[in-house]
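User: Sequence in, structure out. Go.
Assistant: Echoing your sequence, followed by the structure tokens.
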Amino acid sequence: MSLVEQPHHPDETPPRPPEPERPDQAARRNEKKPGGRPRPVRELALILGLFGLYKLGRLFSSDRVTDAFANARDIWDLERTLYLPDEAAVQQAILHSEALIHLVNGYYAAVHFPATVLFLLWIYLRRPAHYRWIRRVLVGLTAAALALHLLVPLAPPRMLPATGLIDTAARYGPAVYGAPESDMIANQYAAMPSLHIGWAAVIALGLVVTSRTRWRWLWLLHPVTTIAVVVATANHYWLDGIVALALLSITVLLLRPPAATPGVPASGAPGSAPSVSSSSTTG
């Protein structure tokens, strides 16, 4: 035996190897990581709760009809002062074809909410490193929009005779809204900002940021199409979209996207492309 070697004592037990981490422990640890995927049940409850608060908050301004029409006239006059294009020109472009009118009305009625839900689900499953950021951006934009809905009730152009626009959904279908005075689901006097445009822009932003394909910029066609649709159907003014995009820009400046970790794919799956963003947030 070497002089530097110590004799082995039989009463000494070798150190125990660390116990493997249980799946629930790993889930909790990953949930606390910046950009980690949150638990699905908790996340679903959070989103449903926030959406419920938003819908409830919108109804608080639904009885301010006089203010909504006064603001609508002011917005219409302001657009003419700013030499913005006439919304009637966009609507006239679809009125020559009833099939096109049905297509545009259907896009307004059926794409907005389902597209947002599917986008959030895809980001949650395939791009968990960006999910929390996207959720925060969406919640921040929606909260800012709700504040404006409460402060500045606004009747849409389809309700304002001075615009010369018609309610394409009510005349040709499919209709989304009932009579404003009896509609207990949607506040039809909350035109500014347009969350149809705002949420469509969030979808395009998220897909552009989290993708590396050269075709990712085509996702910008979604908000562009949405702008054309909401104007052609007389549901929103140009300024409704401009304000929505301005609020989104401010929200993104305040809530920066997560940075890509070297060697770690943004999607959390082998072979996925890394993020194209460079700033960091905490989870």
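User: And one key feature?
Assistant: Residues 128-151 form the longest helix (24 residues).
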